[in-house]
Amino acid sequence: MNDRQQTVFVVDDDQAARESLRWLLESVGHQVCCPASALEFLESYDGSVPGCLVLDVRMPGMGGLELQNHLLERGWCLPVILVTGHGDVPMAVRAMKAGAVDFLEKPYNDQVLLERIQRALELCRQRSHDHEKLAEFQASFQSLTLREREVAALVVSGKANKVIAIELGLSPKTIEVHRANVMFKMRVKSLPELVQIWMRLEKSSLSQE
Prior knowledge:
Number of strands: 5
Order of helices and strands: EHEHEHEHEHHHHH
CATH class of the largest domain: Alpha Beta
Structural class: alpha/beta
Shape: elongated
CATH topology of the largest domain: Rossmann fold
């Protein structure tokens, strides 16, 4: 993923503010899209375009914080920068707790905003990479047989092959074969690697419950 494929979405009901930001961002090479409302953004965005979102907190109808909640509900990982001319500390805290990567009050320094946007785009790249890796791990996990998953869980818990063999009523040699299959299918070369991947898979499973 490169910067040309990323889009900075500017959602603000103030046309002058939108056009000003469009000019600023396009002047440094960013691809920009400027919906006039949160609803317009939701109606046109499907979650497939990488980038970041610059949101005005106070807008008629759906405000920035409400739109941010919709992003979370839909599982979209666009980093959000909230902007307002009427911000206060409680609102900033709410925004950050809801997952915003930054919060700026108007009037803001253009260079500061550009730096924050660049950080948000880098975060988007990292999130996309992490998401792709997790999908690979999940696919590898799905390729394991039920017995291999059982053995893998016990291996990751720190149990030795002999202990696992006794617990499952199998021979140590059979456990070694299952363990080798797990390492091959999960595409790892060491136990620490397997443990790290297993923890990510467990964390992902818990977050989806």
